[in-house]
Amino acid sequence: MTGAAPLAEMAGVSVRYRRAGRLSHGLIAIDLQLAANATVAVVGESGCGKSTLGRVLLHLQQPSEGAVRFRGEDLTLLKRAELRRRRRAMQMIFQDPFASLNARMTIGETLAEPLVVHGLARWRDARPRVAAMLERVGLEPGVAARYPHEFSGGQRQRIAIARAVIAEPELVVADEPLSALDMTVQGQIVSLLASLQETLSLTYLFISHDLPLVREFAGRVVVMIAGRIVEDGPPDAVFATPAHPYTKLLVSCVPVPDPAQERARQAAAGNTSTIAAAEAPDHAACPFRSRCPHAMPICATMPPFRHVAPDRQAACWLHESS
Ligand code: SF4
């Protein structure tokens, strides 16, 4: 990213856990910058660190090392009260809208709460803003008196989105916000997220495993494997001509609607079960080494993250000689 200062930034961020006496890595040396008003998607297989990255970016989780900056301010250095004040600007939309809404609060209370917590309204004054927000996300203002269980999955996700944006945040992390919804509802929610971005000038970090959706919705995609970012660039270019062999594998695993094309894709992809066949990673090596058809002795060392085109970067030794 070049030009203006980023809205949000992760610099040298790592997350380590100790489980049953063994050290494991959630994130390794993550450098990521998000420009204001951008939509940056994060893709990768389950357990690659996508959700951890989203939580650390919002400082819902403390990194083991590195800086997490919002508008240039390192969130990791803030005291709890200072961090609470910054929370209004940074919100999250979760995968499961049922779990993310409080079943005992009415929709009106659910939406008013962020306004009250951040000092933007008192409970009794919040009603007009709640009604306007419900209309904004395609729901009748009258639903404010009802409870989450009275709504469909798509409606609940609209409510969860309304709750995330009612206090007018700048940065929203959406963690698989569509994966619990059926296809027709997914399209409606994508349109809603896009229109909210335009009117509220939102910046999205969009965590997804749905590559066609990412291509449609995001202006930039980062590809993660085993806690590392290994490719970064515009989705059209990254998915059309992947620079990293792992991205190529991910793209080859996307089903296509035409049966003949799908058979050809499966034949070309070979044994796609390799996507779930990762060995315990060696953190000094390329994280894809055990599965990569191009692995070389040098791949025992982690390759640098380098430009492979003016707006694209990848971490793979195949690009070091070019
Ligand atoms: Fe494959 Fe080596 Fe590139 Fe890793 S660095 S993706 S193992 S060629």
Overview of the structural elements:
It is a peripheral membrane protein. Keywords: ATP-binding, Nucleotide-binding, Transport. It comes from Lichenicoccus roseus. This protein has one domain: Rossmann fold, CATH 3.40.50. Helix content is 32%, strand content 22%. An eight-stranded mixed β-sheet has the order 6-7-8-3-9-10-12-11, with helices on both faces. Helix 4 runs parallel beside helix 6 and helix 6 runs parallel beside helix 7. The protein is globular, with a radius of gyration of 21 Å. The structure holds iron/sulfur cluster. The site of iron/sulfur cluster has 14 residues, from loops.
**Number of E-type strands:** 12
- Overall number of domains: 1
CATH topology: Rossmann fold
Rg calculated over all Cα atoms:
21 Å
Looking at the structure, what is the overall shape? globular
Order of helices and strands: EEEHEEHEHHHHEHEHEEHHHEE
What percentage of residues falls in helices of 4 or more residues? 25-40%
Q: At the fourth CATH level, what is the homologous superfamily?
A: P-loop containing nucleotide triphosphate hydrolases
Mean pLDDT: 90
Query: Which runs of at least 5 residues are low in confidence (pLDDT < 50)?
Result: 269-280
Ligands present: iron/sulfur cluster
Strand content: 15-25%
Order of strands across the biggest sheet?
A: 6-7-8-3-9-10-12-11
Structural class: alpha/beta
Write the CATH architecture name.
3-Layer(aba) Sandwich
Distance between the termini: 22 Å
> What is the CATH first-level class name?
Alpha Beta
